[in-house]
Amino acid sequence: MTLRAVIAAALLAAAPAGAGPLDGKRYMIELSSSQYGSGYGEYLVPPLADALAKTGLRAAREPPVDIIANVVTGSDVGRWVGAGGTREWLYTVTVTVGLSPEAYVIPPDGTPAFGVRARLVTPNPDREDELACLIRLAALTAVANWRPTGMLGTDGSACRRR
To answer: Please, what's the b/e burial string for 17-55 (b: 16 or more CB within 10 A of its CB; e: otherwise)?
Structure first.
């Protein structure tokens, strides 16, 4: 076994069970100017902050930080699904939670260095409870599956109000 392998094994053994690459890292949440200016951030930040508080990340009020978290939402115009008595107008709502290094400049469209997009098909695209659930789901999935770059998807159907 090489010295590098011995050191890697020792570090792995010394890490707390369940410890991830982001444990102990400092983060801040970044909103776009339109999210902040419109007041939409009041709906986005609480579930994102709550989800991130449940991870090994530590909130910071000012730089320097290790990670910038952001959230981008979207919804389509809807479509008819089904036939006859089961026909229903449904929308596809998406929430992307991003985790980017502080040095990464998040572009105006909000695309993070790494993110998770949660997707939900729902009859009402304006449900605050579904939005909050999707944000928490995407955030927890992003932290659990973090990597330097990329985009993952996750099914948000568990967030649909029945």
So the answer is: eeebebeebbbbbbbbeebeeeeebeebbebbeebbeeb
